[in-house]
Amino acid sequence: MTSKQHKALAIKHLTNIAYFMQKSDSDYDLRDLERVLNQAKQHYANYLAVKNDNIEDVVIERKSYK
Q1: Where are the alpha helices (DSSP H) in the chain?
Q2: What pLDDT does 7 receive?
Q3: Which of 3, 16, 22, 53 is most buried, judging by how many CB atoms fall within 10 Å of its CB?
Q4: Percent share of the chain, pLDDT over 90
């Protein structure tokens, strides 16, 4: 992934959280909120690593939802 893609994913996660918190009648479970925030932080860390040519610091977590 490029640095722009990592940054876009971090922004997407944060935007989705903000939208859900504003529009939803239900609340996030704190564990779920923490998980999504951690994903946003990891994508931003990956963005910085790729931007600064530290490719070995990039962490990509692949999940299977079967």
Answers
A1: 3-23, 30-51
A2: 92
A3: 3
A4: 33
